[in-house]
Specification:
Elements (H helix, E strand, L loop, with lengths): L2 H11 L1 H14 L7 H13 L3 E4 L8 E7 L5 E6 L30 H21 L4 E7 L9 H6 L8 E8 L8 E2 L1 E10 L15 H15 L8 E8 L11 E10 L2 H22 L2 E10 L6 H14 L6 H11 L4 H15 L4 H6 L17 E2 L5 H7 L2 E7 L10 H7 L2 H22 L2 H15 L19
Parallel strand pairs: 3-4, 3-5, 5-12, 6-11
Antiparallel strand pairs: 1-2, 2-4, 7-9, 7-10, 8-9
Length: 481
């Protein structure tokens, strides 16, 4: 029996349990930091499999790790699982028309029900392989909540939980099968509040100091800042308190939330400081008081090259998910659910990636069945999304796999994605991801030279230690984000 055949034997052993977990977490659809039922489900299952649980990592009630030591316990490797959902994206599984399970309720529009379940199956398969072949190692399943919120992995990394971990793998549901060389950008978020003086807006406006004026001036200042920042940077905002609904009162309180993104942590921090200066200027102009509270920050992510090459090789050996006509039909019907502008954008993206001559072919079978392998590049391209996996990748060698669980062109964080992530298409992609991750884990665990190479590449990246982008006094915003 080959190594892959043995891994597939274990995957078949845990197949039904993995599918049941993925479906149950999809049904729970719990928001960031509130994933109590999902975390409990994993802890119960892992405990039954002989894993030891360490709960409440970094002061986060729904963060945990499950550890299983085999032989000497070396090397130590981790799988990064997520299980939080997104607000308002409730949707019945496998339907190609909008039909929420419960109107306004959360849904797994980013596929974290699949993400965690695949890591669960991989952890069990890797443990069984080590044990049955007389090999050594410690498998750790990291239960990481709130990736869609303020994140948890940066707090877990800051608390030192990855210090003695030799390497980590994870994956994410996607429209493609790939181990990419692209990166994701760093992000920092904060709440800005202004305090002024209330007064009658008609009778004594001169005695008031408007917090709402300050908030608006801050926002205008940030709009002008956009011309003077790098192209890859982003600044997002939302008014969280506009001072009430009475126009005849000078508003004495107003608040905004900002998120700043840039390719590297240093660029992100520099841009965030400029936003803070604008807020101070707005307070000065309006004679109000400004305060801000940093609520979240992720480091930029680029996969470890040595691990990415191993993961890519394992992906090629395992192959892509195998799609049936029923899968293609659902994918075709789902594309029809998008408006014309989105479909035009999807066509353009397919033409750019695959060539104009293949667009019609792909629209007839719009599920990725190819493999995009990893290639080392000197300067990776940074996509504008962000993930707290970046912080783990600064703390220990880490890399990510993408496997198709939805149709080509599908829009993430949508009801369509919630439908896919509870469907047969999503489950097929999840099981394939689990197989690839398990194979990569056992191959890497048996290759000390590869682990050493990965650690040297990490050293060149982080200088020998992980530095959290958050100030030490910023705690996980459990119940506040």
């Amino acid at each position: 029996m080959t190594q892959l055949e043995e891994i597939r034997k274990y995957m078949e052993k845990y197949r039904e349990e993995t599918l049941a977990i993925a479906r149950k977490v999809w049904e729970y659809a719990e928001l960031p930091f509130d994933e109590h039922k999902s975390a409990a489900l994993y802890k119960e299952a892992l405990t039954a499999q002989g894993f030891e649980i360490e709960d409440g990592l970094a002061g986060i009630p729904t963060a945990f790790l499950a550890r299983c030591k085999v032989g000497s316990g070396k090397p130590v490797f981790g799988l990064l699982a997520e299980y939080d959902a997104l607000d308002t994206l409730s949707q019945e599984a496998g339907l190609t028309v909008r039909k929420p399970v419960k109107e306004g309720a959360p849904g797994h529009g980013c596929g974290h029900n699949l993400l965690g379940a695949a890591c669960y199956a991989s952890a069990l398969a890797a443990r069984d392989y080590l044990r049955d072949n007389g090999l050594d190692g410690t498998v750790i399943f990291f239960g990481c909540p709130a990736e869609e919120g303020a994140g948890s992995k940066q707090f877990i990394a800051r608390a030192g939980y990855f210090d003695d971990v030799d390497f980590c793998y994870t994956w994410h549901p996607s429209t493609h099968n790939e181990v990419g060389n692209n990166g994701s950008v760093a992000i920092m978020g904060a709440n800005f509040s202004f305090e002024g003086i209330a007064s009658h807006a008609g009778g004594s406006p001169h005695l008031g100091r408007s917090a709402l004026d300050a908030a608006e001036l801050m926002n205008i200042g940030v709009q002008f800042l956009r011309e003077h920042m790098i192209d890859q940077a982003r600044v997002h905002y939302a008014f969280t308190n506009a001072g009430g609904t009475a126009p005849n009162v000078v508003q004495d309180h107003a608040a905004l939330k900002y998120e700043v993104r840039a390719p590297h942590v240093s660029q992100m921090k520099e841009l965030f400081d400029r936003v803070v200066h604008i807020a101070r200027g707005a307070a000065e102009m309006t004679e109000t008081k400004m305060d801000y509270e940093i609520t979240m920050a992720f480091s930029d992510y680029v996969g470890n090259p040595a691990l990415s090459e191993m993961l890519s090789d394992c992906m090629v050996e395992c192959g892509a998910p195998v799609w049936e006509e029923a899968d293609y039909q659902m994918a075709r019907d789902m594309l029809k659910s998008y408006n014309e502008a989105t479909l035009t954008s999807i066509r353009a993206s397919l033409a750019e990636e695959f060539g104009p001559e293949r667009v019609e072919e792909l629209l007839k079978k719009p599920l990725h069945s190819e493999l995009n392998t990893y290639e080392r590049v000197k300067n990776p391209v940074y996509r504008s999304g962000s993930t707290d996996v970046g912080d783990v990748a600064y703390a220990t060698p880490t890399t990510t796999l993408n496997i198709a669980t939805s149709c080509l062109g599908n829009v993430g964080h949508s009801w369509q994605n919630t439908s896919f992530c509870g469907s047969q298409i999503g489950m097929k992609g999840m099981l394939k991801a689990a197989e690839i991750l398990a194979l990569a884990c056992v191959r890497t665990a048996q290759d000390p030279a590869l682990i050493e190479k990965a650690k040297k590449e990490l050293l060149a990246k982080n200088g020998g230690h992980y530095t959290c982008p958050l100030p030490d006094d910023v705690l996980p915003p459990v119940g506040k984000y």
